[in-house]
Amino acid sequence: MAAKATPTYTSIVLTKYSEVDDSSSLEVRRETEALDAPGTSQVLVRVLAASASFTDVMIRRGLYPDLPGKPPFVIGYDLVGEVLARGDGVREELTVGARVSALTVVGGCAQYALLDAEHLVVVPDGVETNAAAGAILGWLTAYQMLTRSGFEAGEGKTVLVHSASGSVGSALVVLAKSMGCTVFGTASASKHGFCSELGIDACFDYTADDVARRVADLGGVDAVFDGVSLASFKTSFKMLKSDPAGVLIPYGFYTASRGKSKGKLAGEFIKFMLWSKFKNKFSSKTITPLFNVVTLRSKEPEAFRADLTHIFSLIASGVVTPHVHVVMPLEQVQEAHTAITGGSVRGKIVLDPWPNGYDR
Description:
CATH topology of the largest domain: Quinone Oxidoreductase, Chain A, domain 1
Helix content: 25-40%
Distance between the termini: 23 Å
Protein name: Zn-dependent oxidoreductase
CATH superfamily of the largest domain: Medium-chain alcohol dehydrogenases, catalytic domain
InterPro entries: ADH-like_N (IPR013154), ER (IPR020843), GroES-like_sf (IPR011032), NAD(P)-bd_dom_sf (IPR036291)
Number of strands: 16
Organism: Thecamonas trahens ATCC 50062
Keywords: NADP, Oxidoreductase
CATH class of the largest domain: Alpha Beta
CATH architecture of the largest domain: Alpha-Beta Complex
Shape: globular
Order of helices and strands: EEEHEEEEEHEHEHEHEHEHHEHHEHE
GO molecular function, one term: mRNA 3'-UTR AU-rich region binding
Largest sheet: 7 strands, mixed
Radius of gyration: 20 Å
Number of domains: 2
């Protein structure tokens, strides 16, 4: 197909790996070249909302594995967009005018995006655009850990969620409660009120409480969801019940990812692999592989689409409501990343590519 003409549009380009406080690594670029028309199995979308996450921060620091290339590239891990054009071989429901969600890894922070159609999921009419954008990464990660990681959430189960006020943590709390679980969590004292609003049964201040002792006094838990560090994993493992044996679901190394060294993060991962292999061999308790939603998507693309569709149905029916911390103009992505690294965000930051509207 021939290229499709378009007016000047905005994208946020990562020009180099750096710390978040180096604002020169992000360029607000005014694109003037015509967008390519979608090819086979592709769609062109107008981006209606993107999100900002700690994963984007890891990408900025050069700590995220398996990126499609080195900078410069458009940053942005996910988006909600309106289909403007579609190529051949695209699924029937991805019609022109439909709202769709995408886990892009990179490329989401722009006013337009050319996307492969395979993993796109339609956003139903009952789901507001910003809520959908706030749910894609964090809520899908949470839901799949609760259902596809080796632990089966349900009535009578007790779980502990670390960083319960964050994007993934808050989703874990709400979804686990909706499935009938008793939910404990950790968060700084200033965020306990927010966690209570989520419906958490008990929240511990990780800076002051002896969380392992407090959880042991409550009888232990069936599962712990932990994205903090190897040291945290080891403490979490001790909180698991022995009979029936509990499950530790790790999904990140937040502490190591705050550093500047890719070697430190790799070292943490290697130590985790050795420790978890030993524990899984000699203990009745289970440590699952480090969970990654993109890895699972590549193995089970149908499950990815089915699960995200289910999350949208829960939102549309009012069963769950993703918490959007704030909606910011796309060009303020630097401020969004700064807020995330400062630890002040509760839930998700959503980015608006069109704060002044657009012509249809």
